[in-house]
Design goal:
The protein is built from eight helices and six strands; from the N terminus they run ααααββααβαββαβ. A hairpin with a 2-residue loop joins strand 1 and strand 2. The longest helix has 25 residues.
Length: 237
């Protein structure tokens, strides 16, 4: 048993520590993937486990080649590992989805990159560091979102599209209502239809994600002959 522990703890790559590192990276990657799966993300348990194992295997190869074929104890194991850090960016880019101005998947992409780094840490024998890094990743993914919402820290950019009967020239009334609800207006776009006599106003606003927009819309409806109000991420003029 002591001999096995020594083999696992050895800085040189051998069958025992290689297998241990691969199993550990699969476990750590899976734990992160479970959390992403729970959030309904496409990249889940299998994806994160494979990314972490792949990064570990790349690091093992980086250490093994100069050790076994060149007889070097101080070779350059960072050469292959460096390509993992840059190459995994393609996977991260694939996890990012853009839908009509709204971007989703940034957290998953960051998680993929960080999981690859955990795999590299496991492959280099930094067991304690890799476990702590996984715990911190899970803590951030599980708790930070709720904390942001609890302290109302998260701000979102939205488009409030108002279709009003008639040709509207007074745009400050809506701005006043927005200011009342702590909504910041950064820009506005107008479309006048003189033939059918209606106006479409697009307000680009920045607001906290906890804001209840129906209350705002009801107040706007009281001061304008509103045909429709739409909350979206895409300007339509």
């Amino acid at each position: 048993m002591n001999e096995l522990i020594q083999l696992i703890a050895s800085p040189d790559v051998n069958s025992a520590n290689a297998l241990f590192r691969l199993f550990l990276s699969a476990l750590l990657g899976s734990l992160i993937g479970v959390e992403r799966n729970r959030r309904g993300q496409i990249a889940g348990m299998r994806t994160f486990a494979l990314i972490c194992m792949g990064a570990t295997l790349a690091m093992l190869i980086s250490i093994f080649i100069p050790q076994e074929y060149l007889g070097l104890k101080n070779g350059d194991p960072g050469r292959i590992a460096a390509q993992v850090v840059s190459g995994v960016g393609f996977l991260g880019a694939g996890a990012i989805i853009q839908m009509k101005g709204s971007v989703r998947g940034l957290t998953t992409a960051a998680g993929i990159w960080m999981t690859a780094c955990v795999g590299l840490a496991v492959g280099s024998g930094m067991y304690f560091v890799s476990v702590i890094a996984t715990i911190l990743i899970l803590f951030i993914l599980l708790n930070m979102d709720g904390l942001e919402r609890k302290i109302h820290f998260t701000w979102e950019s939205k488009i409030v599209r108002i279709k009003v009967s008639g040709i509207v020239t007074d745009l400050e009334t809506c701005r006043t209502i927005f200011a009342k609800y702590n909504i910041r207006t950064s820009d506005q776009f107008l479309r006048y239809n003189y033939e059918e006599q209606f106006t479409v106003i697009n307000y680009v606003v920045l607001t906290r994600d906890s804001l209840k927009f129906p209350e705002v819309f009801n107040e706007i409806h009281k001061v304008f002959p509103v045909i429709s109000i739409t909350l979206t991420n895409e300007v339509n003029v």
